[in-house]
């Protein structure tokens, strides 16, 4: 399965081949949908694949949905089988652009950039925007930021029995250290 996802990612990012690209296969993406007084709803993927075209700011990332790990195996199992339906929708993809990105202006001092694009999760595309902090150091590009996603926007149904324990707005955070391949 990992080889299939990696092959799909390579084909997906093929358009970036001729550009000056920075990438990582160890990007960190987390999401949290916790509510006070209930068990934390938090998951983390440390194997997100991301590619940044440093010539024009185009960025794309892909995660195998099963790579998101929770504190408890039962919560992870429910997420994969009942909500994300990973057998039917095995990956989540973001395609977008870092607005006004200019690699020549990157320094070791973090700068704020707007990132706009489309998130495909559960087979549904939804426009998202984010503010990212980006800087360059030791030949690498560092990028971190976050945005809010709503399960309802991606046709994810949360049963009434647990809907009071899961936030309607899911906080998604990303953290990338990208290098030239």
TrEMBL record:
Membrane-spanning ranges: none
Signal peptide limits: 1-19
One Pfam family of this chain: YceI
Claim: Cell division is one of the keywords in the record: no
Annotated ranges, domain Lipid/polyisoprenoid-binding YceI-like: 53-176
Domain of life: Bacteria
Protein name: YceI-like domain-containing protein
This protein's record includes keyword GTP-binding: no
Native source species: Chryseobacterium shigense
Lineage, opening ranks: Bacteria, Pseudomonadati, Bacteroidota, Flavobacteriia, Flavobacteriales
Keywords of this entry: Signal
